[in-house]
């Protein structure tokens, strides 16, 4: 029972790194001796130092003979830092408890073998499901080359995001909007479609939470027809802006956006839209592990149709706009229920006057 308790603490620490340590995984580590926590650590901004050396440094001499709880198999390869497995061996811990093994070919099983080879007792699989969920973005990037994708939809009870005249501020209340900022903070990037960028002129930053590291701002615009005097354009040199575009984008616009400070991501296009598969592969190649998509309707529909949405978070406000309103999701061409993407309800809660639901993709059997 104590193993579960200490691993739960390590998992909570690991989540502190979400959104700030990509392309590395957000790992947590707890050092325990005689039932007392003597060291805590999590992956630091930029991905280094890793969780284990941070916790070991805090533990000092108390790490000798202690148990280390780590949410992901300690790394076994020399990168920009020495292997964490070596650090644990050098600290002379007696036991290492790991939630999940690493799927990275440079590590997979080797970290555990190094520890066992040094005479350290190793146990795996403690709170493995929880750890696998927290680290799903890292595993998806490693195994499939794409990041974990959360799609957020804020709409009326009848699924609208704006009135017939385009009025949309604000459908949900301040409590829901603050929670969305906290969600942005836990992702590597915030993404919107070109239509949302043109109509809303969003900043896509985390505000009022005291953060000093902002997520990358991604705009998906096949033709790159975005306002050059927008908030994103004016701040591209302050907070990263990446624009996913198609091969038919105007070369003059490509040059202009580069001069403004944006990074351009060429992607394949299917018809009038960027291919969602190409888009996600491009984001994965840049090292992103967790992406938070806030629409609009056409981008949401394309991602859902391509089965790219891992988590769906909905905020529903207690108002109705009717058929004249703009739908939160664009046309998907679904003719039969069996073709529709399905999600399992994970949680439901009141946020101010709104209702928040968290849904996870139904995995095929």
Automatic annotation (TrEMBL):
Protein name according to UniProt:
Riboflavin biosynthesis protein RibD
What the protein does comes down to: Converts 2,5-diamino-6-(ribosylamino)-4(3h)-pyrimidinone 5'-phosphate into 5-amino-6-(ribosylamino)-2,4(1h,3h)-pyrimidinedione 5'-phosphate.
What CDD domains does this protein map onto?
Riboflavin_deaminase-reductase
> What GO MF terms are annotated?
5-amino-6-(5-phosphoribosylamino)uracil reductase activity; diaminohydroxyphosphoribosylaminopyrimidine deaminase activity; NADP binding; zinc ion binding
Listed binding positions for substrate are 168, 184, 204, 207, 294
PANTHER family annotated for this entry? 2,5-DIAMINO-6-RIBOSYLAMINO-4(3H)-PYRIMIDINONE 5'-PHOSPHATE REDUCTASE (PTHR38011:SF7), DIHYDROFOLATE REDUCTASE FAMILY PROTEIN (AFU_ORTHOLOGUE AFUA_8G06820) (PTHR38011)
**Which InterPro entries does the UniProt entry name for this protein?**
APOBEC/CMP_deaminase_Zn-bd, CMP_dCMP_dom, Cytidine_deaminase-like, DHFR-like_dom_sf, Eubact_RibD, RibD_C, RibDG_C, Riboflavin_Biosynth_HTPR
PROSITE patterns given in the database record: CYT_DCMP_DEAMINASES_1, CYT_DCMP_DEAMINASES_2
Which Gene3D superfamilies does this chain map to?
A: Cytidine Deaminase, domain 2, Dihydrofolate Reductase, subunit A
The stretch of residues making up the signal peptide is: none
For this protein, what does the record note about how its cofactor is bound? Answer: Binds 1 zinc ion.
Instruction: Tell me its EC number(s), please.
Output: 3.5.4.26, 1.1.1.193
Q: Which UniProt keywords apply?
A: Hydrolase, Metal-binding, Multifunctional enzyme, NADP, Oxidoreductase, Riboflavin biosynthesis, Zinc
Residue ranges constituting the CMP/dCMP-type deaminase domain according to the UniProt record: 1-123
Annotated Zn(2+) binding lies at: 50, 75, 84
Q: Where, by residue number, does NADP(+) bind? A: 154, 170, 196, 200, 296-302
Pathway in which the depicted protein is active: Cofactor biosynthesis; riboflavin biosynthesis; 5-amino-6-(D-ribitylamino)uracil from GTP: step 2/4; Cofactor biosynthesis; riboflavin biosynthesis; 5-amino-6-(D-ribitylamino)uracil from GTP: step 3/4
NCBIfam families on file: eubact_ribD, ribD_Cterm
Q: Can you tell me which family this protein belongs to? A: In the N-terminal section; belongs to the cytidine and deoxycytidylate deaminase family. In the C-terminal section; belongs to the HTP reductase family.
Q: Name one GO biological process term.
A: riboflavin biosynthetic process
Q: Which cofactor does it need?
A: Zn(2+)
Q: Which reaction does it catalyse?
A: 5-amino-6-(5-phospho-D-ribitylamino)uracil + NADP(+) = 5-amino-6-(5-phospho-D-ribosylamino)uracil + NADPH + H(+); 2,5-diamino-6-hydroxy-4-(5-phosphoribosylamino)-pyrimidine + H2O + H(+) = 5-amino-6-(5-phospho-D-ribosylamino)uracil + NH4(+)
């Amino acid at each position: 029972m104590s193993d579960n308790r200490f691993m739960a603490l390590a998992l909570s620490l690991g989540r502190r790194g979400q959104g700030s340590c990509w392309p590395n995984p957000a790992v947590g580590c707890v050092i325990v001796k005689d039932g007392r926590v003597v060291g805590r650590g999590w992956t630091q901004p930029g991905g280094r130092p890793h969780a284990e050396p941070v916790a070991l440094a805090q533990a000092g001499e108390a790490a000798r003979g202690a148990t280390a709880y780590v949410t992901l198999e300690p790394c076994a390869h020399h990168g920009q830092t020495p292997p964490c497995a070596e650090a644990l061996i050098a600290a002379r811990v007696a036991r290492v408890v790991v939630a999940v093994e690493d799927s990275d070919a440079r590590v997979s099983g080797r970290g555990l073998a190094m520890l066992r080879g040094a005479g350290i007792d190793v146990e795996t699989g403690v709170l493995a499901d929880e750890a696998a969920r927290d680290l799903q973005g890292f595993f998806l990037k490693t195994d499939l080359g794409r990041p974990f994708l959360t799609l957020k939809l804020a709409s009326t009870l009848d699924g609208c995001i704006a009135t017939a005249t385009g009025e949309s501020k604000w459908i949900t209340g301040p409590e829901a909007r603050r929670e969305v900022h906290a969600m942005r903070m836990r992702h590597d990037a915030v993404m919107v479609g070109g239509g949302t960028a043109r109509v809303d002129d969003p900043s896509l930053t985390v505000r009022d939470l005291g953060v000093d590291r902002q997520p990358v701002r991604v705009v998906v615009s096949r033709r790159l027809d975005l306002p050059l005097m927008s908030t994103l354009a004016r701040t591209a040199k302050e907070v990263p802006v990446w624009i996913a575009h198609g091969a038919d984008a105007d070369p003059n616009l490509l040059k202009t956006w580069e001069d403004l400070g944006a990074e351009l991501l060429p992607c394949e296009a299917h018809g009038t839209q960027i291919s969602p598969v190409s888009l996600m592969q491009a984001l994965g190649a840049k090292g992103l592990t967790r992406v938070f998509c806030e629409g609009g309707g056409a981008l949401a529909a394309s991602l859902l149709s391509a089965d790219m949405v891992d988590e769906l978070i909905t905020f529903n406000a207690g108002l109705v706009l009717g058929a004249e309103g703009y739908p939160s999701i664009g046309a998907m061409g679904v003719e039969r229920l069996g073709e529709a993407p399905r999600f399992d309800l994970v949680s439901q809660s009141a946020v101010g006057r709104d209702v928040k639901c968290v849904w996870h993709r139904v995995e095929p059997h």
